[in-house]
## 1
Amino acid sequence: MIDIHSHLLPNIDDGSPSLAASLDLAQQAVADGVTHVLMTPHHMNEKYENPKASVIAATAAFQAELDANEIPLTVFPSQEIRLTRGLLDELAAGELLGADENAKYLLIEFPDNVVPDYAGQYFYELQRLGHTPIIAHPERNTAIINNPELLKDLLKQGALAQLTASSYVGTFGTMVAEFAEQLVAANWVNFVVSDAHVLPGRKYEMTAALQKLGSQRAAEYEANAKAAVNGTPIKRAPMAASLTKPSLFKRLFSK
Ligand SMILES: [Fe+2]
């Protein structure tokens, strides 16, 4: 199993606070059936700056620790890049890492609970330059929960989206889980990932999520993760025109 979103590198963002915690998370990943993990520390998110060279060095050092501790996990350098007005400059400066070596696929997170009004314009420009944005955890963004069309428009324009395994199996509560289920059913997400941090109640739940997806979608998502890491084309299942029902949030609060 390949996990294309994690915060396993020690001491560089809100993920793992120490090498010991990182090795512990790595062991959890292996126990969950994961063989390859992308290291995706936050970059440009106001609090954390993790430019390309430093992530590459930290990932190599972590791989050496994994090997020394005989933990059978292969790690690759990447980033979770905050969408800001500085994104295209950072790309031009060569400071961004993708899921693959040529940065064909870029993992993009939106500012908390917002979809910036320039997202469509910036995504268009990224794609014109040969980079496909992969939207991180749309199921936890309240702007998208309130108005799923915001996500749909970006997907129709060519972006991809990934679901956090914990969201899908219910760790973030019923509202997020139900919304995640709807996104899966509508083919509005293309991957399931751990987004592993060291947080109470957060653990590796990739196997549980894949089991819940059922064998066909699990195989599809696993193939997509492999294609992202290899920088090869990703098969997009046909998107439903809309979600089956308004989000639980809307149903509860629009009365
Ligand atoms: Fe993340």
## 2
Amino acid sequence: MEGRIVEPTAAYDYGRLVRDIELLEDSFQDLQTETIGTSVMGKMLPSLAIGSGPRHVHVNAAFHANEWITSLALMTVLEELLHAARQQAAFAGADARGLLMANTLRAVPMVNPDGVDLVLHGASAGHPFRNELLIWNGGTTDFSGWKANIRGVDLNDQFPAYWEEERDRRVIACPGPRDYTGEAPLTEPEAQAMAAYTRHYDFDVVAALHTQGQEIYWNYRGYEPEESEPFAERLAAASGYTAVKLTGSDAGYKDWFIQQFRRPGFTIELGFGVNPLPVTQLPRLIADTRSILLELLR
Ligand SMILES: [Zn+2]
């Protein structure tokens, strides 16, 4: 694509995200941005809004630190959508302007920036959480398996949807790389910001991008509306993924959204392999994200 700002190359840290958003703001008048909160370490959490339609769609990425490639896939596709709308061109075969007249898309491309930077850059001598992180990580400086935020809390186990059951199921009693729910729901600023933002915009549909598995989770304890299953089947058909009915999981963002609002919410597990997925998968992840985003906007 001519004049591309978001470069689909490794590694996509918070600094690159912020730089790309600034450049996109300079290039595209149609793009609105805002800060929805701050991370534990004080990083501003950006949201990008495109379109002016009555249907409010939300997509987020990188709830989990070592799934940062989802941020890059989403940002790449958002830029494609902006280009297509400006040039009155097609986005994945559909009329971009029409999609953005019907929908307002709001994206939070990196929910967990402190964690992403930890996975990509480690905990150097000056890192304010270095000592705790090394203990929580079992003494190793390899943080490639880190999913949590910088306080060792799994942000996708933080939401008030049968949180106590998730805590008891996880049996992780202290901070660590993954699966620690925290001491209570919404103790972490990143999760608080996502909950407040979601309540404020009252989204019609939400999707959280994760890796990996090529699966789409669409239900939650029967709270989902009837349209969720056929919607998930459409997303699956568009991406070649499998729509999966899940049990035995609580306290996730999409769980909370479904229970709170009784509207369609999805967890999308992009790609296939071992996290963090290799950058060689990026073209496929971008194509899948494009197909899924189009279907969310239809
Ligand atoms: Zn994940």
